């Protein structure tokens, strides 16, 4: 008896389904009684999901903005900032370019010392551009074709060299975001 009187829905039998991002954290089951269904003017308004907005700069979607996210620019410079690449275009000029990566590094990256924003050349994202943590990484890759910022390709041209990468690191050597 009780089961026939109660219609259980995981999500409603309405014509227009709202869409939710894949980041929805949870859904709720709603029990709707037969009484409410029989009244055609009954509208059920429910918040069905608690949606966490995307974290700007979290390109790999794991809930942080770190060195791994900077590497999302590798191989994508010069592309149109649409579709899956739209979030990479931070300066809103319609293209994924080096300026977007600079904005990402300087304003969005969360460093291991719990600060936000760091300097180009901070390859290990600890908030400071130094010799031991960063310059040695770059020197170890010097002359090599690499595809990541974290390996020393600061300008994302696919190779670690002196003019394109080492000079940028040297210019920021000693810079720190430590308050
Ligand atoms: Ca991330
Ligand atoms: Ca851009
Ligand atoms: Ca560093
Ligand atoms: Ca380079």
Radius of gyration: 24 Å
Mean pLDDT: 82
In terms of per-residue confidence, which ranges show pLDDT below 50 for 5 or more consecutive residues? 1-27, 42-49
**Proportion of residues in helical segments:** 25-40%
Bound molecules: calcium ion
> Total domains, how many?
2
Biggest sheet, spatial arrangement of strands: 1-3
State the major sheet: 2 strands, antiparallel
User: Beta-sheet strand percentage?
Assistant: 5-15%
Shape, per Cα inertia axes: globular
Specify the number of helices. Answer: 6
Number of strands: 4
Structural class based on helices, strands and sheet pairing: alpha+beta
- Write the H/E string, N to C: HEEEHEHHHH
Describe the structure.
- With 179 residues, this protein is α+β, with helices and mostly antiparallel strands.
- The chain has 2 domains: 2-51, no CATH class; 67-172, no CATH class.
- It contains 6 helices and 4 strands, in the order H-E-E-E-H-E-H-H-H-H.
- The protein has helices at 2-5, 34-38, 67-70, 98-108, 131-141, 162-172, and strands spanning 6-9, 24-27, 30-33, 49-51.
- The strands form 2 sheets. The protein has a two-stranded antiparallel sheet with strand order 1-3. A two-stranded antiparallel sheet has the order 2-4.
- Helix 5 runs antiparallel to helix 6 (162-172).
- The longest helix is centred in the middle third of the chain and has 11 residues, at 98-108.
- The protein is globular and about 40 Å long.
- The N and C termini lie far apart (67 Å).
- The relative contact order is 0.11.
- One calcium ion binds next to helix 4.
């Amino acid at each position: 008896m009780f089961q026939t009187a109660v219609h259980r829905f995981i999500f409603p039998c309405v014509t227009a389904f709202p869409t939710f991002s894949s980041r929805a954290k949870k859904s709720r089951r709603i029990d709707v009684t037969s009484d409410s269904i029989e009244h055609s003017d009954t509208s059920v308004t429910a918040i069905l999901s608690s949606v966490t907005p995307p974290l700007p700069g979290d390109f790999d979607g794991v809930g942080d903005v770190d060195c791994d996210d900077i590497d999302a620019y590798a191989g994508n410079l010069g592309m149109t900032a649409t579709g899956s690449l739209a979030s990479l275009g931070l300066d809103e000029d319609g293209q994924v370019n080096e300026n977007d990566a600079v904005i990402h590094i300087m304003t969005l990256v969360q460093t291991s010392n719990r600060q936000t924003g760091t300097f180009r050349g901070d390859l290990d994202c600890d908030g400071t551009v130094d010799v031991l943590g960063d310059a040695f990484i770059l020197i170890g890759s010097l002359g090599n074709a690499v595809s990541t910022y974290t390996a020393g390709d600061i300008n994302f041209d696919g190779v670690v060299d002196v003019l394109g990468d080492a000079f940028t690191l040297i210019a920021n050597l000693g810079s720190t975001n430590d308050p």
